[in-house]
UniProtKB/TrEMBL annotation:
<dbReference type="InterPro" id="IPR050260">
    <property type="entry name" value="FAD-bd_OxRdtase"/>
</dbReference>
<feature type="domain" description="FAD/NAD(P)-binding">
    <location>
        <begin position="6"/>
        <end position="160"/>
    </location>
</feature>
<dbReference type="InterPro" id="IPR023753">
    <property type="entry name" value="FAD/NAD-binding_dom"/>
</dbReference>
<dbReference type="Pfam" id="PF07992">
    <property type="entry name" value="Pyr_redox_2"/>
</dbReference>
<dbReference type="InterPro" id="IPR036188">
    <property type="entry name" value="FAD/NAD-bd_sf"/>
</dbReference>
<keyword id="KW-0274">FAD</keyword>
<keyword id="KW-0285">Flavoprotein</keyword>
<protein>
    <submittedName>
        <fullName>Pyr_redox_2 domain-containing protein</fullName>
    </submittedName>
</protein>
<dbReference type="GO" id="GO:0016491">
    <property type="term" value="F:oxidoreductase activity"/>
</dbReference>
Length: 317
């Protein structure tokens, strides 16, 4: 049985940041990191140039190397049981860890109310790579969601027709009121512009999960910089964006149902032959090559909730 002052469960941005911060405030405490993935990308060769600019390289390293100078013990495993009263974790390798303080940094997973082979839930670098592959031959995609990821996706997609279905009365309602949304709407409709390279690099550290990850292990969240390197382009020569307000996803329908809707003039986007047909809550049917579901995430807290009582608003007793 191992014991420590701090144990961090997770291998993403939050976990790495937590380790670094804990070590700055407590240079003697024993820290154990438990994660099912052992490769991350981190900042190396960092040089400060002036007051605002920093020069650095991004390198892919085993997590043990990243934590080498921090005197951290890394355990590659998955937590299977949490004894919160005795402050003890049981791992899938039968190892037990006791601790004084626990940091849960297990991230989240996409909210997927409707599952389909032609539906992509954007969450990590792996799902963005899948999107980039599938969209190459696409002419039309349906985007469900109105948060940050959905907004960035609509902005970044190129050479494809985009049907953007949102449940609010204005775009990006999480961030803007209706007036601001109308101001920014033309920028979203026009879409991606090639960025000019800046001589000033951001100070923010960037961590991403390596591609060599185990099956069933969800990667790190995309973070605020994912769109800066995305190149997501369809098969058309230009892009078009249509926004449908105050709707949600109702379900998937057959081609016959979609064609009947066309005959009844009840849907403007269901004509033609498409691999996927989706019905919205306003009765409109959308034909598309595939659907991008960006309706947020839910925390990977099943184990913690199972082994500990939850009270209102998700706080532990």
């Amino acid at each position: 049985m191992a014991s420590c002052t701090y144990v961090i469960v997770g291998g993403g941005v939050a976990a790495v940041s937590c380790v670094e911060e804990l070590r700055t405030i407590d240079d003697r405490a024993r820290i154990i990191v438990v994660s099912s993935s052992q490769l991350v990308k981190t900042v190396v060769n960092q040089q400060k140039i002036g007051q605002l600019t920093e020069l650095f390289d991004i390198a892919e390293q085993p997590v043990t190397n990243v934590f080498a100078d921090l005197d951290v013990t890394f355990v590659r495993a998955t937590v299977t049981h949490w004894n919160w009263k005795d402050k003890e974790l049981l791992l899938d390798n039968d190892q037990r860890i006791t601790y004084d303080k626990l940091c849960i940094a297990t991230g989240g997973r996409p909210k997927t109310n409707f599952r389909h082979a032609l539906s992509i839930s954007i969450r990590d670098t792996e799902t963005v790579d899948r999107l980039r592959t599938q969209i190459k031959d696409a002419k039309r995609v349906l985007v469900i969601g109105n948060g940050g990821i959905a907004t960035e996706i609509v902005h970044e997609l190129k050479n494809v027709e985009i049907i953007w279905a949102i449940r609010h009365a204005s775009i990006s309602a999480t961030f803007f009121d209706e007036g601001a949304a109308e101001f920014f709407k033309p920028m979203l409709i026009y879409g991606y512009k090639k960025r000019q390279l800046s001589s000033t690099k951001p100070k923010r550290y960037r961590f991403t999960v390596d591609n060599e990850k185990e099956n069933g292990v969800m990667g790190c969240a995309l973070g605020p910089e994912w769109a800066s390197t995305a190149n997501i382009s369809g098969s058309l020569s230009d892009r078009r964006v249509y926004v449908i307000y105050k709707v949600e996803l109702k379900g998937f329908v057959s081609q016959d149902t979609a064609h009947n809707a066309v005959q009844q003039d009840s849907s403007r986007f269901s004509s033609g032959t498409w691999p996927l047909y989706v019905e919205l809550t306003n009765g409109e049917i959308i034909g598309c090559d595939f659907m991008i579901e960006a309706t947020g995430v839910q925390p990977n807290s099943d184990l913690w909730a199972r082994d500990c009582h939850l009270v209102s608003f998700g706080y532990f007793q």
